[in-house]
Design a protein that fits this description.
By secondary structure, the chain is mainly β. 9% of the residues lie in helices and 53% in strands. The protein contains three helices and 15 strands. It has a 15-stranded mixed sheet with strand order 8-7-6-5-4-3-2-1-15-14-13-12-11-10-9. A hairpin with a 4-residue loop joins strand 14 and strand 15. The longest helix is centred in the middle third of the chain and has 9 residues. It is globular, with a radius of gyration of 18 Å.
Length: 257
């Protein structure tokens, strides 16, 4: 479940563009409530802390996901995704992926060498260590979210236009493409929120019904946080809504009718 959610929210956020003020800061935290059909299936959180890598202070993001209630009886999930990335460039230093999804487990840690465009991946379950060549400006699955939130092109896309970045996941680099759909106001527990709507392209098959199975609503403000996510899965449908937040860098705007 958490792997799906991380993939969903990964698009929310190339140094070939001039960066403006960051959309986030240390201390940001938010939680998504996940529904599978009519069932309250679980929660996912993302939190930004501070750490040090290579004598630089970096953002340390912790992503957690877990099932709850009846869903926990049928498909128990306990996932841990982490990323360490540079505060200035957004380039990742390190990632962690420790998941247990209904008995499917994975425990990996990756270390990026941005000077020679490689990533060393340690697999603690298989007791292996491999190094992969990656493109310049490659992101891991969690850092992609924050990298895109600061991408200036995210604010100037016209309907139907897309952004594409390189993302390293499951020991390979994929081209992650995000299409802008338009604007929409949606009702939430916090009130009516103005959102930008995006559709990331995903691989159809085992998890998702088709390439354009996901739709994501992002707050149309300087924070650019996920407000709602919907997915048509190979079996059933999934919905996630913003449930709680704190530590946002910018004011959170609620629309008054």
């Amino acid at each position: 479940m958490k792997k799906i959610i991380v993939l969903l929210i990964v698009f929310i956020s190339t140094n070939s563009f001039v960066q403006k003020e960051d959309a986030f800061t240390t201390g940001e935290w938010f939680k998504l409530r996940i529904h599978y059909g009519l069932v309250n299936a679980g929660y996912a959180t993302l939190e930004i802390k501070e750490a040090t890598r290579d004598n630089h202070k970096v953002h340390h993001v912790l992503g957690k996901g877990w099932t709850t209630g009846m869903a926990k009886l049928f498909f128990q999930v306990k996932d841990d995704y982490q990323s360490f990335f540079d505060k200035e460039t957004g380039k990742p230093y390190q990632f962690l992926r420790k998941i247990d999804e209904g008995g499917y487990t994975k425990y990996q840690e990756g270390f990026f060498n941005q000077s020679n465009n490689t990533v060393k991946v340690k697999d603690y379950e298989k007791n292996t260590e491999n190094t992969y060549t990656v493109p310049e400006n490659v992101q891991d699955i969690v850092s992609s979210f924050y990298y895109l939130r600061n991408h200036p092109k995210i604010d100037v896309l016209k309907e139907g236009e897309s952004i594409a970045i390189d993302m390293f996941f499951d020991n390979e680099t994929t081209k992650f493409k995000l299409k802008y759909i338009g604007k929409e106001d949606i009702k939430t527990k916090f009130g009516k929120i103005s959102c930008k709507v995006f559709r990331p392209y995903v691989q159809a098959g085992r998890v998702f019904k088709e390439e354009e199975s996901l739709t994501v609503w992002i707050s149309d403000d300087d924070n650019k946080i996920p407000i709602r996510i919907k997915a048509s899965l190979a079996v059933g449908s999934l919905k996630a809504d913003l449930d709680a937040f704190k530590g946002l860098k910018h004011s959170f705007k609620v629309k008054i009718d």
